[in-house]
Specification:
5 helices; mainly alpha; 85% helix
Length: 124
């Protein structure tokens, strides 16, 4: 009975691409977080989450669920960066960090808007 239930779960994860893709990205994010923590590179966890969220957002923007998942990755990465990682750095480093986050967010918004306008042109 247990094997039958596991086979159904495996089949569902592989046939439902959205669920399988979500589980894969969540496992990738959790694995990367543990690995970077083990290597004492916890500062890179925020960067990893932001980059993974950006990848999901720009490659799967047609799916509302994937866009929400991508924004959740970006949000948690920025939240960790803003509240946890900035506690032990100097004031000028905090300023540079916030300017860098702002530039990244402006660049992402510009790229997204450009892709939306190109998609609108092609559909007309």
């Amino acid at each position: 009975m247990k094997a039958k239930a596991l086979n159904r779960l495996n089949l569902k994860l592989f046939t439902d691409s959205q669920t399988g893709y979500t589980v894969q990205h969540l496992l990738l994010a959790i694995s990367a977080a543990f690995l970077l923590s083990e290597w004492e590179l916890a500062l890179l966890i925020s960067l990893w989450l932001i980059l993974q969220g950006s990848y999901l957002f720009f490659t799967h923007k047609h799916s509302k669920f994937m866009a929400k998942l991508a924004l959740a990755f970006i949000f948690f990465g920025l939240l960790k960066l803003g509240f946890i990682d900035t506690t032990n750095i100097l004031l000028w480093q905090k300023v540079a960090l916030m300017i860098g986050i702002g530039i990244f967010m402006l660049g992402a918004a510009f790229t997204h808007q450009k892709q939306l306008s190109q998609a609108t042109i092609y559909h007309q």
